[in-house]
Design goal:
This protein is of the alpha+beta class and 301 residues long. Helices cover 37% and strands 20% of the residues. Helix 9 crosses helix 10.
């Protein structure tokens, strides 16, 4: 998937700047080295980007292509986000072995997901479902679904689209049921702040609407303390020339969900994200503090 995404960005750059010479360098990250381990066990923040950012800072590579949902809201000193390319479908989607929708799955059906955010929202919508963790590449997940390990799995629609596997989608999950992760479906190009002319070149493939939407989502995530292991979702959309932002935070068991939305100008996306975070903060604070206390109890065992 990472190679396919990088190849797509490289092709966009070649079209925008035919004289540019581009070569791809594959870097294995911590997330790649432990494909079957649950994210929470190996440290989810920066799981797929740390080694790549270190290569950028050393000057081994000039650009890095990331899934925006994997990119921490605070970048290392010396690095910056140069562009966000045109966003794929940001929604989550359901792949069901029997072709059933989320509403049609039988009582107690087993659903696989590696995401705490998806898990919590799914529990809120269908408390009867059994949620089981799923890791590995896309082929592995689909194969396990076919063999009956799960009745259905939840995935990001963008990944299936980029691999040409959209025909496998049983249902696109509405944001009202499952709000996606901040930045989901978008690709960001990271580079050194002192990259000079390269920063100007990279702007040629920046998609303004995608950039504004994801900047607002990331500001919302940052405003709620995005490093915490708490389910948080956000989705920015351009509507009639303005930016509409939805945000969500909930308890891991899905029993308490806090949602909100607001609108603002395209020119101030981060201010919009901060505004929504501040609006939800009085209620969100209780969830965040509760999870922090649970974490401290766990460390003391």
């Amino acid at each position: 998937m990472a190679v396919r995404q990088s190849e797509g960005v490289a092709e966009e750059l070649r079209e925008a700047c035919p004289d540019l010479t581009i070569s791809l360098v594959c870097i294995r990250t911590r997330g790649d080295r432990f494909p079957d381990a649950p994210f929470l066990e190996i440290g989810e923040r920066g799981l797929f980007v740390k080694e790549i950012e270190e290569s950028l800072l050393r000057g081994d590579i000039d650009l890095a292509v990331h899934s925006m949902k994997d990119l921490p809201t605070e970048l290392p000193t010396g690095l910056c986000l140069g562009a966000v390319t045109s966003r794929e479908d940001p929604r989550d989607c359901l792949l069901s072995r029997e072709g059933l929708s989320l509403e049609e799955l039988p009582l107690g059906a087993v659903v696989g997901t590696s995401s705490l955010r998806r898990q919590a929202q799914l529990k809120n919508f269908r408390p009867d479902l059994q949620i089981k963790p799923v890791r590995g590449n896309l082929d592995t997940r689909i194969r396990k679904l076919d063999t009956g390990e799960w009745d259905a799995i939840l995935l990001a629609a963008a990944g299936l689209h980029r691999l040409g596997l959209q025909d496998l989608v049983t249902q696109y999950i509405p944001p009202e049921i499952c709000l996606p992760a901040a930045g989901q479906g978008a690709l960001g190009v990271e580079l050194r702040e002192k990259a000079g002319d390269l920063r100007v070149t990279i702007q040629m493939i920046n998609d303004e609407e995608s950039a504004c939407a994801t900047l607002a989502e990331r500001a919302f995530l940052r405003g709620l303390g995005g490093g915490c292991q708490v389910p948080i979702g956000a989705l920015g959309e351009v509507r009639s020339g303005n930016l509409h932002l939805q945000g969500m935070i909930c308890t891991p068991d899905g029993k308490r969900v806090i949602r909100g939305d607001c609108d603002g100008p395209l020119g101030a996306p981060e201010r919009l994200g901060e505004e929504l975070a501040q609006r939800l903060w009085p209620e969100a604070k209780g969830i965040l503090e509760g999870e922090r206390l649970e974490g401290e109890k766990g460390e003391g065992r």
